[in-house]
Design goal:
heterodimer; A: 166 residues; alpha+beta; Alpha-Beta Plaits; five-stranded antiparallel β-sheet; 29% helix; B: 572 residues; alpha/beta; Rossmann fold; six-stranded parallel β-sheet; 22 strands; 37% helix; globular
Chain lengths: 166, 572
Amino acid sequence: MEIRTKDRHTIGILVQNVPGVLARVVGLFSGRGYNIETVTAAETHEPGLTRITLVTTGDERVLSQIVKQLNKLVNVIKVYDFSETEFVDREMALIKVRAEQQTRAEVLRIVDIFRAKVVDVSPHFYTLEVTGNESKISAILELLGQIGIVEVARTGKAALARSKKH
Amino acid sequence: MKLKGAQIFFECLKREGVEVIFGFPGGSVLDIYHEMPNHDIRHILVRHEQGAAHMADGYARSTGRVGVCLVTSGPGATNTVTGVATAYMDSVPMVVFTGQVPTALIGDDAFQEVDIIGITRPCTKHSYLVRDVNDMPRVIKEAFYLARTGRPGPVVVDLPKDVIQAQTDFRYPRRVDLPGYKPTLEAHSGQIKRAYQLIKKARTPVIFTGGGVVLSESSEELVRLAETLKAPVTSTLMGLGSFPAVVPDSSGNMDLHPLWLGMLGMHGTYRANMAISHSDLLLAVGVRFDDRVTGKISGFAPKAKIIHIDIDPTSISKNIEVDVPIVGDCKNALRKLIEAAEAEPIEGLDALRAPWIEQIRQWKETYPLAYKQNSEIIKPQYVIDKIYEVCRGDAIITTEVGQNQMWTAQYFHFSRPRTLLTSGGLGTMGYGLPAAIGAQVAHPDRLVVDIAGDGSIQMNIQEVITAVCNCLPVKVAILNNHYLGMVRQWQELFYDKNYCGTCLDASPDFVKLADAYGAVGLRASKPEEVEPVIREAFSIKRPVLMDFVVSPEEGVYPIVPAGKSISEMLLV
């Protein structure tokens, strides 16, 4: 489960998949001075519907405005503030790490511990795929950082509520 | 039968009941202009696209119908942006059709290409770029539906040239399908009950109304509720006219309504601001607690429980925490409150309310709105008093922005909704003249007066010719003080009298300018000339510019300095 800090919120937004919809959502955040920490967006199993998952910060008043302002957008079908319920969230990271003769074994041990995968191998680098919640990703990054990270691409968080459909 | 996009455009507008378009042609919309003579729709050719947007806005505010404008791509579109933002801030139903370069060229920095959807995204209720002619009927249907329903607002529809040239079978959809758009109209009965329980207990209630009452056409309900509860009423600038400021007294003379407090806020009346400050219950209807109304938040209605009715949930608890939020159409909520009040009347209401009404009467007598007219120089307030007197309050008044606007709000006693058209939220100088033209198009037989300043009027003065050549007899009263008066007043009060950039010592001769445009120009330089000039102007069936040479350093009072509580008014 996500460790919640008081003012950090994960918001799920179900939108019509029409041109410009992401711009409307992120434009609302920049225009009104709200913060976006991460944002992910992709189509759902229902044709024409996209789910955006967004992590933002703000006190209760700001959060309530964010949810209401998002709901006001014509292309937004549903907004869910996950801090009100139990939810699961994951993100994925691709990590290119230095893997020379003397460090390869250590990299592979870490891969094993974190149930990550090596998805590309080149003479000097391994590229790893790791999924998990935010703290797991942060932990593996910290460990690999001591060996030598070359590049990282993180997806940001995707989240779903645990119980009924949202 | 196959129709071209340009024909479909007119077929859709016909079905939406559009009778007039305010527009200006250009390369990207030439196909629509080419088609226009084949359709029974009026086109008002403006001289600047900002004028078109404000005219559509004035038309919409004065009628409640959707205003429509049509402009070309690029600069045509960008010129409407101030008008679109003005309409957005004041929730005015409007559809703006902009031309766009052909779809194949979009993104290539083509001639007169601009991303108008991107530019207007933060100041429209919604917007559409139509990429396929088959989408046109649906998009136009949705645009009009969105513009006029819920909390109204402007919608931009961007039409690429190849789309309006393409052909398809025309079918107008019967209904809209917008799964993400379901405005709440019905007020929650439980909340109404909670609200009425608070109202019943209140000793010093104030009803505080705004533009939402005008938009939802609920003046009648407002008056009925106020009289049932014997609760005094104050209003924001946007709500003026929804409660009758004056009513006939027992002998038939018009007098201020005993429950009317006047406007509140930065330039509100003493009694309105004091009433808010001493109120134990505020019933806020269709307002959004703008900073010009509240002053310092912690000093606004500090003793009051607040009930807030609004159709837009984002307005609720945005600036001020409220005790009982009621999301819904104002008309619906007011009706339900009336029902509650009639089902469960407040016992001993007259006695309960008497001390409050008496207190308000005392405030009113202690510091009424006032100015001293001498025999030498015209006071701007006097001009507005005289306009009110000569037309007996029966006119559609538009204003520019600044002192002219605030004096109008203070001294013209608006008693019917949709008779004051003014840019409240955005504060757009240059709004009044084109808005007056738009209102005159909708109401050809009514007196329409733009109360202007010599600064503001010059921001869209080019539209005088639009009024002249369309035989729209708008009247413009310029309160000419040779200053940007409101800004000068702030410099006087808060910036060490450093009058930098606010003196308009070089201005055109407005009488000659009127003449050059083919309108009528009249001037009053002395107090005794004011009334004859107004009477003459109102008797002329052509556009008239009245140049009133007024006292240059007159200020708007009361004024609440920015950041102060509304009870901390500077009175003179």
